[in-house]
Hints:
By secondary structure, the chain is of the alpha/beta class. The chain has two domains: 4-66, CATH 2.40.240.20; 73-243, 3-Layer(aba) Sandwich (Alpha/beta knot), CATH 3.40.1280. It has helices at residues 19-28, 84-96, 112-135, 150-155, 174-184, 205-213, 228-243; strands at 4-6, 14-18, 36-40, 45-53, 57-66, 73-80, 101-105, 143-144, 161-165, 191-197, 217-219. Strand 7 (101-105), helix 3 and strand 8 form a beta-alpha-beta unit. The longest helix is centred in the middle third of the chain and has 24 residues, at 112-135. It is globular and about 60 Å long.
Amino acid sequence: MRRRFFVERFANGAARLEGESARHLGRVLRAEPAQIYELSDGESIFLARVDRVSSQQVDFSLLEALPACAPRFQTSLLLALVKFDRFEWALEKATELGVDTIVPLAAERSEKAFVAAAAKRAARWQKILLESAQQARCVRVPVLQAAMRPASAFAQSVAPVRVLLSERAGAPPIQAVFSGAASKRVEGEPLRIDLSVGPEGGWTEREFQTASSAAFVEASLGKSILRTETAVIAGLAAAHLYFDA
């Protein structure tokens, strides 16, 4: 299977790969002229031939356009900050499951040290998203927003489907929430979903209230208490089941 890389743009039948990805392709993968790779600019995909390799860039000639299937739904993941190894694992798996945007949340039960260090980790997280998108052969790399408080993230949501994963006993099962939303979707129009996953220890009462005020619906993933990163996978997998069929 051909490797896929992301470039800034396609222009005049050519493209250029720069930065760390170019260095990896040139030094680690030992790319040579005439080799074939797949390139994406975030909107379209081309089969491309290597023309020239240098220490800082790789130049390509575009050969032919490849199918870039439009997603049937788009997802923003509002993800509470947790221990960084688990948070980064969640970023990787969310990318593989096709998430479009990731918003780190400084939840009330997120440890202050994680919140304080989030900005310094942004470059590393961007790299994880890029590498995961390449590995999963995505059309685009997810957008990583700056960390914010849940109330701000909830308030700015305009998605038709807004779901807050909840461990509370009265929360309806996620299949009921998603099946209801799926029955109301307009055929042919991509659906936007905002899925919010809380920290270890769960959401506080105040966060439940602010989410409800912003029209987020609570949804349960079952009786078990899941780790944050497990809930990410389960929630996104459920979205694929109901909206990507």
